[in-house]
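Deviations from the work plan: none for this task. Representative record:
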Amino acid sequence: MATKTKITIQDIAEKLNITASTVSRALNNNPRISEDTRKAVLKVAKQLNYQPNNIAAALRNGKSHIIGVIVPTADRKFFASVVRGIEEIANKLNYKVIICQSYDSYEKEVQTIDALLNARVDGIIASIGKDTEDFSHYKKVLASGLPLVLFDRTTDQLDVSQVGINDYLGSYKIVEHLIQQGCKRIAHFTSPKKISIFRERLRGYTDALLDNGIPFDENLVISSNLQLEGGRQSMEKLFEAGDLPDAIFSASDYGAMGAMQVLKERGIAIPERVALAGFSNEPFTSFTDPPLTTVDQLSLTMGNITAELFFEQFKIKDKKFVPQRTVLMPEIIIRQSSLKKR
Amino acid sequence: MATKTKITIQDIAEKLNITASTVSRALNNNPRISEDTRKAVLKVAKQLNYQPNNIAAALRNGKSHIIGVIVPTADRKFFASVVRGIEEIANKLNYKVIICQSYDSYEKEVQTIDALLNARVDGIIASIGKDTEDFSHYKKVLASGLPLVLFDRTTDQLDVSQVGINDYLGSYKIVEHLIQQGCKRIAHFTSPKKISIFRERLRGYTDALLDNGIPFDENLVISSNLQLEGGRQSMEKLFEAGDLPDAIFSASDYGAMGAMQVLKERGIAIPERVALAGFSNEPFTSFTDPPLTTVDQLSLTMGNITAELFFEQFKIKDKKFVPQRTVLMPEIIIRQSSLKKR
DNA sequence: ACACTTTGCGCAAACGTTTGCATAAATATT
DNA sequence: AATATTTATGCAAACGTTTGCGCAAAGTGT
């Protein structure tokens, strides 16, 4: 027999001839309640199969114990892992997570923020959409006094805590690795998007070259959408230009994969003739042939840290909180696609 | 100047010298409100930057406009895509989604259900954990009168709507395909887990063989955890047994990948000497060399349909709802790993 | 001009908790 | 024994909406 009508603390109270206040306090372990009544309340609660109504509590307390997480898309491994990292921490602290996807659309991002605000989340964790250039919707969050933490896709225009990885150094280290392998003409696949991560990767590439006495050649920097097809096209362009480079560093694994396909189709040996490296450590990179050298972004860790930063800010509440920026050091994963020397 | 104190419909009402009821009705497009006041209310609402308090509304209405989704893990592409499919539909109908992960733990699954119940979600969509054998927590959901829909990992023990794919036929068709390619001794990698999807795939494999006059040989069925390492070990076992089969159908892509690695290390030609097929259409399968033949599970579609089923049930409300079972027909994706004939 | 319907809005209760204040009983202090 | 303190509980308001009911004003039909 299921309880047809939802049972409340009132029901418990009546059964015990006490008031709802006492029941509430008993359930919340308020010290001003005697052990006896607490026991009794707990017993009846179990017996009636009482389910607390968090909504009522949330209304009363002004806290929903829910935090909103905005990601461009949830079905990319990187974001899925970050979300998982966030959830690990949040659940431990008894918070639930609402995941929203912006699909990299500015419109959707704005709507989502409004929706989360209306849902009265206790704070927001977000990765900014690719096309977002105006940040007033995020400022609205801050204005409501809610904690906001950004990860991965960060910005200088918002004075909030952020955690990202050092794209510059990841890029720098991987190019340096290619140079150590004896590569002299290293091409770079990048994106025309003005998003900072690609600019940083380009900068790392450039600096690594210069620091090692290799001249920068703008003809070796190819722009595309960095998807598989973009990588293929970029590779074709390099062939058309003649004088094949001896290494390619793509700012995305998909781009590198496109290059690998074209190279293999043309019978070019990887890594002997052309070494290859990508960025992101997508799950597929360990399964390609040869396995692809790449940069791991520590997604799970990023999620953990982001959440920790969030809750830290959470605790401090009223006192003026000083936003913190955490920059993770990416790990380069060296696999056979770049190992010219054994 | 951000509005320091949250503004409510009361504030709007005062400013216009009307009551909160009128404001509420105006905002909800109640026809009993004149166009003039509606306009005025909307204007002031915008001007004051009013954010509706969904929690208050949820308390009053008994509807939170949030639905809970439970998946074993959010960072596997398949589940991430299903969730995305669910969200597409849900958001369209103005519902938000809370994603919870059970990590395939029974304990966690039970806790999660309780948490969602307390959060007063309007319904639950779930994929059952691997180890779950008792379903009383799900029955609790039904007892509270909340809609419940299951996907992928389904069960006969609950009388609810479910949507899955026809693992049997996916398996059957892919084995048939291998046979058409001329394979006569086809090995199968499976899991010892008692979870029905693997049983079904094994059944499809067996039936396809028998229907095509190929005797079933239990020595060709190898059990493992179906991860990469499991696939490698299973492959090694086949080598040890001598008399290599001419095809391998793994119930998971990772298992197939493990086999591919070992085969390549031993210089066995794929697909000429041994054809290979997996299951799930993991993202990496198109990037292996050779690309892996596999079965696509239509994850996005599954999410869409699950959500539609959910909301259908939602609408009907009180009338007795008859649970529906939808079985999607998986698509076999034929790639080079199984193409012996050109 | 009368009765009747429609239109537009206000009143007040309700949703289920939590909590400051009050109070009675029990205990401690002098 | 009288007063002060502690302990355990009750009272009632509050959180911000929504909505049934009621009522006056405006509109309709005869």
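Residues 6, 8-10, 20-21, 24-25, 28, 30, 52-61 of chain B lie near DNA strand D (CB under 10 Å from a C1').
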